Amino acid sequence: MKEESLPTRRDFIKTATVVAGITIAPGILLHTLSPVIANPQGKPLDQPVSSQVRWGMLIDTSKCHNGCTECVNACKLEHGLTEQVRPEVAPQWIRKVGLRDKQTGKEYSLPVLCQHCEYPPCADVCPTGASFRRADGIVLVDRHLCIGCRYCMMACPYKARSFVHETLTEQKPHTPRGKGTVEGCNFCVYRVDHGQRPACVEACTQAGYQAMWFGDLNNPDSEISQKLKEVHSTTLRSDMRLNPGVRYQGI
Amino acid sequence: MKHAISYHTIEGKSSHFYGLLGTTVFFIILGLLSAYQMEHHGHIISGMSNQIVWGMPHIFAIFLILAASGVLNVASISSVFRKTFYHPLARLSGLLAITLLMGGLSVLVLDLGRPDRMIVAMTSYNFKSIFAWNIFLYNGFILIVATYLWFMMERRMEKYYPIAGLIAFLWRLMLTTGTGSIFGFLVAREAYNTAILAPLFIAMSLALGLAVFLIFLILDCRETDCPLGEGILHRPKLLLGIFVGAVFYFVLAYHLTNLYITGRHGIEYFILVGGGIYTWLFWVGYLIIGTISPLFLLYCRRFNQSRSSVLIASLLVIIGGFSLLYLIIIGGQAYPLEIFPGMEVISSSFSDAAKVHIYIPSVWEIMLGMSGIAIAVLLTLFALKILPFLPRSLADADVGQEFMD
Questions:
Q1: A114-146 tens-digit pLDDT
Q2: Cβ contact A103–B342 (<8 Å)
Q3: Interface predicted TM-score (ipTM) of this complex, two decimals
Q4: Which among A46, A90, B217, B314 is least buried, having the fewest CB atoms inside 10 angstroms?
């Protein structure tokens, strides 16, 4: 009868080292490289956001097509805003508005969303601090702190916030929402943190309109900063001096 | 000889007592049912929306909060302004201040989208928010008035009673300033964004509080067979007229200021001329029913000697107050925000082109609001049953000459 040979201690250590190396190495590699791969524009994902960046948007109304709702549809799809309810209680993170100049009669079409103000009235009035402005300029609602008082909705000059009026189903994992809390455009913050653009901007670009530009307003070399240097742009209700992060060209 | 004021508890065995008790419990159950329905189904069952975000529950809640701070005025006149004439009524005034505030806060809390997160509201504060300040002001008010009542009722603490009264008086002024500022600080809406809302709310609280107090006093004396002298009623009823006049003064100043500012002509036209229900509420609800009629009843010699006139005048002041609150709270939201100055909105999926945002209160909201009043009444009945808040007699002779200062 053949005697079964047991591995030596040296063999065991060799095998264990190889197995451990194969198991751990990809993780270490990914951990090291992932911020570079996944977030070519922004900060490493394990670092806090910085006020050196200010995310902003430029909307070129001359290219925004009347009747087009690509940005609105993309937002609904991205965040699961699918409730079939009457318009007054439906979530309105972004909406298309048609305008006519009272003096000249010229017509415009543009999307209205949270303007991500530098001095957001919604954050000022929120009693619990659930509404807040991130260091990089994105205005968000902490769903765990929101008590559903709706004071932020009273304070917002742009009607950019919605209250969740009913039980939700089929929520998206990246956009947790909650009945009885307030919500609004978050600039697709999880996409931005991964170096992507908000869904509405992507949709507008893919549809070929190129009416929405997104980027770092603090970076003079960013595409949006370059464009803002070239064109005349304005903000909605600029008289309120809230310094919104969303600017409009052509109105 | 100095008359000692004698106080008593109510017996609480009459059929009227049990009838009132049953009615309040019924309305509280309806309110709790409404809160449960809104929690379960969401606010979609209410008439509120993303356009009209505050509705009927807020009108009831703010009415009760204003009345709570105003009703304390009777005690304040006694201890701060040393008008001893009001002294026998001070305990009842303090009690109603606490119970009305509790009723109002209950409605406010039960209307929240997440009433289960009260612990968050109590532990996480943004001190830039006037709403957060109000949480302190409301809780502090209950604590201060409870202490004030204790000093009032406890002989050993009597020497501290005037200072407690002064603190309570100053606190109530801050509280109502805070409540008015909830709207005054809303810079985006044309109907708000003005400091005058703070003194307007103070004046409203004085009028509503005294009206509620007079109704309660007259009905309570009738039910408990407590004699109530005409002399005792004479001064508060004249004071009510002054408070109604003060509210009118601030309303007038508010509208004249808006009429002067060209940019606000739109909101003024909406309220005074073309606002439908809101215009009707201003002219008929507030001005004719809530201001001119009670002033007529309180100052016209032909009527002002009748106790029924005081009762009716107080009721009319409350109707006027509700009308004005509805106009301020709902009307201020129904008038569209001006997001695009100089532009006419020709299309929008979110009613940006609307001339007025529609609001139809649901029965759930009214049930919730009514339950706030029921909570205040139930708490008052409970307190009257266990502690001596009511003077045995308020007959002119019993109250004594020294109170007729």
A1: 999 999 999 999 999 999 999 999 999 999 999
A2: yes
A3: 0.92
A4: A46
**Of A125-129, B100-104, B154-158, which range is least confident?**
B154-158
Residue numbers in B near A121 (CB within 8 A)? 186-188
Q: Do B349 and A151 make contact, defined as CB atoms within 8 angstroms?
A: no
Residue A195 Cα distances to A43, A44, A77, A173, angstroms: 9, 10, 20, 19
The ranges assigned to domains in chain B are 7-336+355-389
User: Is residue A216 classed as helix, strand or coil in its secondary structure?
Assistant: strand
- Whether the CB-CB separation of B208 and B294 falls below 8 Å is answered with no
Question: B189–A154: do the CB atoms touch at under 8 Å?
Answer: yes
What is the CATH number that goes with domain B7-336+355-389? 1.20.1630.10
Secondary structure element (H or E) that encloses residue B347, with its range: strand B343-348
- Report the pLDDT value the prediction gives residue B6, as an integer from 0 to 100: 85
B51: chain A residues, CB-CB within 8 Å: 88, 159
A36 falls in which pLDDT band (50, 70, 90)? very low
Cβ proximity of B291 and B252 under 8 Å = no
By Cβ distance, the residue of B129, B346, B348 closest to A107 is: B346
Q: Which helix (H) or strand (E) holds A214?
A: strand A212-216
Average pLDDT, chain B: 92
Interface test with A, best of B105, B112, B129 (most A CBs within 10 A): B129
Beta strands in A18-113 (DSSP E): 55-60, 94-101, 107-113
| Structure-model confidence comparison of residues B112 and A9, the more confident one | B112
Largest Cα separation within chain B, whole Å, is 79
- Phi, psi dihedral angles at B395 (to 5 degrees): -70, 145
| pLDDT confidence tier of residue B398, bands split at 50, 70 and 90 | low
Q: What are phi and psi of A107, to 5 degrees?
A: -105, 150
Provide the pLDDT confidence category of residue A3 given band limits of 50, 70 and 90: low
Alpha-carbon Rg of chain B, whole angstroms?
22
Phi, psi at B223, each rounded to 5°: -70, -35
- CB B347, CB B71: distance < 8 Å: no
Reported as a pLDDT band with limits 50, 70 and 90, residue B306 is confident
Per CB-CB distance under 8 Å, the chain B contacts of A101 are 342-344
pLDDT band at residue B401 under the 50/70/90 scheme = low
Q: Which of B44, B188, B351 sits opposite A156 (nearest CB)?
A: B188
Give the gap in angstroms from C-alpha A193 to the nearest C-alpha of chain B: 26
Please work out, in degrees rounded to the nearest 5, the angle formed at the alpha carbon of residue B57 by the alpha carbons of B53 and B61.
115
CATH class of the domain comprising A55-249: alpha beta
The structural domains of chain A, with segments of one domain joined by +, span 55-249
pLDDT tier for residue A241 given thresholds of 50, 70 and 90: very high
